[in-house]
Design brief:
Oligomer: single chain
Shape: elongated
Number of helices: 22
Number of domains: 5
Radius of gyration: 35 Å
């Protein structure tokens, strides 16, 4: 094996002249021995040498040393009489390109590093390898890298991504067959999507959410394409309807919760040394008072707009208060909640336990709150500690069963996946409310149709939902009619926006790596080049 074969392939005509190592830099001097070179203008080969010159080019590091190649190259005369170039520099097929100060393989490393992280992070990483490069140089490499050709996939996924959440959005296009991003659009207007589809004909299926402008853009840009609504968004919309239904039926949840509270309180009173006391000055009193005032003002003839202005509330919140009979419970969580079981056990074991001693024990278990924070949170939870009295609240109820936003989860779970406690809760809710019984039947029937791909029975479900008398679920069913064909395709076909949502998460990651300083073109280049 020759020394040249360690650096270059046998087809390349280079000769190594010398090696030298100084200050962690390995210098390699080589010279070109290829007999001819082609003119870059007329592409005529010539062997007539004009002169010699030297180029210094960085290469990949070796043995924790930076590598610099000093290349002795030549200038040639162009022998073609009509060529405007009389003298040109020697060209090489591999490794060395004109005007570059690094080899092809080194620039491949630079490009891979900057695509996987930010320019600053890539600069720090590459310097640890013994190669010094600036972040601006890395960005220039990204800028001059040619983008992959845009093409029209057979199965196209469309979704939005946020420049700034709730303010400005763009559109991402994904080939669902290989799950890779094929293009990034600067906004989510119907005209932008329509223009892209017309410039890239050939899309057979378009998977999208139920956003109106995507429906309009897909219909105008590719009228022959089959549109598929995303199943996850359908379930999400139905879940929102169920949550609103539970808001309206919150009195049933509250009644069931009070029954469980009374039962737990009775069972825990039998424990010796434990007393119960109603916590006064509940922080939710102001919340409940506001609810009562809104109801009273509306019954007195005040308009929704005037009530919203008076209390500085959203009109939607005022409408919600007016529609429901009981106020939904506000769930709250702090880091003390996960230690409540331990606290109650310690009070049972040692009734004379002091608060400061308990604080020290909790710190050993990972609690990092202050002593005063612990005292205040225990008071809110109903746990009072002192020398004379120990007042402990009965075991805390699970939020999953009593807040509408979380109780709605039980309606969507498979029967086999429900615990016995959850099944009993669901049965009790349905026994107390005929409305919730109908809602549960409609939700399970909807999921059954989706699971069995029975899109031909979707019209039947929509009719049942509208005729059920349930305002929220009926409104959801009514909203499905304008987009019925796409929703039916979602039930019958396997395609969905799942891979698109995964690529949206990838966009979020790249945006954070760029610290919000990169523009649209740089973000687009990083995504498309990284998708190859």
């Amino acid at each position: 094996m020759t020394t040249e074969s360690l650096f270059f392939s046998t087809s390349e005509k280079f000769e190594i002249v010398s090696f030298d190592k100084r200050d962690s830099i390995l210098s390699i001097k080589i010279k070109s021995i290829q007999p001819t070179s082609c003119c870059p203008n007329c592409h005529v080969s010539t062997s007539k040498v004009h002169s010699y010159y030297f180029r210094k080019i960085k290469d990949l590091p070796a043995f924790e040393n930076g590598v610099i190649i000093t290349l002795q190259a030549r200038k040639f005369y162009c022998c073609h009489p009509e060529c405007i170039l009389k003298v040109f520099t020697e060209r090489f097929e591999k490794h060395f390109s004109p005007y570059r100060r690094g080899t092809y393989r080194l620039e491949r490393l630079f490009l891979s590093a900057v695509l996987e992280s930010s320019a600053k992070s890539a600069e720090r990483l590459i310097r640890k390898m013994g190669v010094f490069v600036s972040d601006t140089t890395l960005l220039r490499i990204v800028d001059r890298e040619p983008l992959p050709a845009t093409y029209a996939p057979k199965i196209l996924g469309v979704d939005d991504w946020a420049w700034k959440k709730r303010d400005k959005y763009g559109t991402v296009l994904v080939d669902l067959t290989n799950r890779k991003i094929i293009d990034l659009l600067i906004d989510r207007e119907a005209s932008t999507l329509e223009k892209w589809l017309k410039n890239n004909p050939g899309v057979v299926i378009i998977s999208r959410d139920r956003y109106g402008k995507y429906i309009q853009g897909a219909t105008s840009g590719a009228p022959d394409a089959l549109q598929v609504a995303d199943r996850w968004h359908l379930l999400k919309n139905l879940g929102e309807a169920i949550r609103k239904q539970l808001d309206r039926e919150y009195s049933v949840l509250k009644e069931l919760r009070d029954e469980v509270i009374a039962e737990n309180k009775y069972n825990n009173k039998s424990k010796k040394g434990i007393k119960y006391q109603t916590v006064k000055n509940n922080p939710l009193d102001r919340y409940r008072e506001r609810f009562r005032e809104v109801k009273q003002l509306y019954s007195d003839g005040q308009s929704i707009l005037s009530i919203a202005k008076r209390f500085k509330m959203s009109r939607q919140t005022v409408k919600k208060y007016i529609a429901i009979h009981s106020l939904p419970k506000k769930s709250s969580y702090n880091q003390l909640d996960k230690h409540m079981v331990y606290i109650k056990e310690r009070l049972l074991q040692e009734p004379s336990l002091q608060l400061r001693d308990l604080w020290y024990e909790l710190q050993q278990q990972g609690y990092n709150g202050a002593y005063t924070t612990l005292s205040e949170n225990l008071k809110k939870a109903g746990v009072m500690m002192g020398k004379k009295s120990k007042i402990v609240q009965f075991p805390r109820l699970s939020d999953l069963l009593w807040t509408p936003s979380k109780a709605s989860i039980l309606f969507f779970k498979d029967v086999d996946a429900l615990s016995n406690k959850q099944k009993n809760t669901l049965i009790s809710l349905c026994e107390k409310s005929h409305t919730l019984t109908k809602a549960l039947h409609l939700v399970r029937y909807f999921r059954f149709l989706m699971k069995t791909k029975a899109g031909n029975r979707l019209n039947e479900w929509i009719s049942q939902a509208i005729d059920s008398g349930l305002k929220e679920i009926g409104g959801f069913a009514q909203s499905m009619k304008p987009d019925f064909q796409a929703i039916q395709n979602a039930f019958n076909l396997p395609w969905s926006n799942g891979p698109v949502e995964g690529n949206v998460n990838k966009i979020k990651t790249l945006k954070r790596q760029m610290y919000g300083r990169g523009g649209f073109q740089l973000l687009k280049r990083r995504l498309l080049l990284n998708s190859e």
